[in-house]
Amino acid sequence: MGAGTEPDGSSRSDEEWERFLRESVAGTADAPKEPSARARAVTRRLRSESAAAPAGWRTYTPSRPKRRKGWYAAGLLLSLALLVVALAPDRVVDLFAGGGSGSAPLAGETARPTQAPPAAAAERPTRDEPFRGSPAESWASGEAGITVPEAAAVGRMSAAEVERALARSRDFLVASNLDPGVLRGERPEKAIALINPHQKDAQRLLATAFSSPSEKNDPLFLFSRFRPSHAQLAGDVVKTRGRLTYQEGEYGGLQVTADVTFVYPVTRAGGGGDDDIVRTIVRRELVLSWDDPDKVLSAPGTFSIVSYNYDMTNGGCGAPTGYLTPPFGTDGQPTEPGTEVDPYDRSGPVVRGESSGDACARATRS
Prior knowledge:
The protein has eight helices and eleven strands. The chain is α+β, with helices and mostly antiparallel strands.
């Protein structure tokens, strides 16, 4: 062990201690002096601070200037987004409303809209995207696009009975306008089974419409069907948009009103290219009466037809054939100026858009 020991526990060597004693006795000017108590305390504090462990590299905290830089970048992005909204609001609305291909469909229609859908980009439909360039691209498919309201008791009917009548009214729309066999031209047996067999005027129409279609008795009044030798669906999806409403009818019955637009992408029979795809659009307004069998002669589970009206575009002109006959290329297209119809405008009542005979309304878009 050395002859001298420092306050921090370190030791001096024998040579240093001997030199210290000798020079102290001799009075050498530059002889080393023993540190004072205050100096030793300061030394201990400085050595203790220097011995503290350095901060690890994973504990690094960004400085305040860098945080300000992050807020600046976020503000810049927000400014750019606001600029896009200002310059192209329709595109932004379409994006969040489900306008793009593969996006979520629009929410169901619960009331009559106040205006027509905004114009979409002029794009031709294709086999893979038959609704491209159409407002129907963001609509729901099949019966999912038909909004059925919540049922409540009406007149003699309980809420459960109203709910059942609404469901069967929707079933009729599906069986008459979405059933694959009916769309291929087959007789709509399921739909016909829901019509009151004791309603004479409806039965007269059904008795002759399919075999001898005419101005007064045309199956297209109630059913959507294509002649299989002329046209076929391009894919297996039909887009729909519309709703059911209800109120108390005459004689204590329930009156259900349906207002639904159906969009059928079709192509030539036997298949065709993208240039042959046509969208036939049919909007139907039906008023159905679920009658009290004690007051109106009717079969259980059937309704009477109060009224029907429809509007179609790209469905054919001329004498009734009992089928929708979409034009391909220039075939069947109106050549003379006439009434223009926007088939996607649901803001007004149903108006017959294509008249019989030689005249034919012109669709502003399809």
